[in-house]
Amino acid sequence: MPDDLTLATHICRGNFKSTFLFSGGYEPVATYLAQLNYDRFFLEYDSDRAGDLAPIKNIWNNRSNVSIVLGLVTSKSGKLEKKEALIKRINEATELVPLKNLALSTQCGFASTEEGNVLTPEDQWNKIKLVVDTAKQVWG
User: Fold this and answer.
1) Span 47-99, pLDDT tens digits
2) Which of 46, 116, 121, 140 keeps 20 to 30 A from 107, CA to CA?
3) Which residue(s) pair with 44 in the sheet?
């Protein structure tokens, strides 16, 4: 692989018409994920069904050059998260992984299937703006 190629994976739990298929934390698969040759892990953390943040430490400890992308902003509803709550969650993650190895995103895409999710284009842009504004505040 070229040196400038970034390999990323998204651990999806389903995203059809604002529904999901799976629940549970990443603990059972964290050791396995840490062994995979990815540079970046996009992990869903938009609700309690994703479990706690503890498994990100396991992934990072085994490969300290990886980035953990925290999918804290849901793409399943138009309700806008509070920036302060996102920052608080990111700060919790920094107790496990250095800030330079963390990133922020939506939990999944806005239209993983042609049916999309139950939110408007305006909702989607508001969420993208929230991610960008929060990232600027946290990472500068």
Assistant:
1) 777 788 988 898 888 677 899 999 999 887 889 999 999 999 999 999 999 99
2) 140
3) 71
Report whether 127 contacts 86 (CB < 8 A): no
Q: What is the pLDDT of residue 117?
A: 63
CATH number of the structural domain spanning residue 54? 3.20.20.210
**Nearest of 48, 59, 56 to residue 20 by alpha carbon:** 48
- What's the domain range around 98? 8-139
Residue with tokens 């396995």: 32
When divided into structural domains, the chain yields a total of 1
The Cα–Cα gap between 4 and 7 comes to 10
Q: Write out the DSSP string of the chain.
A: --TT---EEEE----STT--S----SHHHHHHHHHS--SEEEEE-SSGGG--STHHHHHHHH-TT-EEEEEEE-SSBSPPPPHHHHHHHHHHHTTTS-GGGEEEEESS-S-SSTT--BS-HHHHHHHHHHHHHHHHHHH-
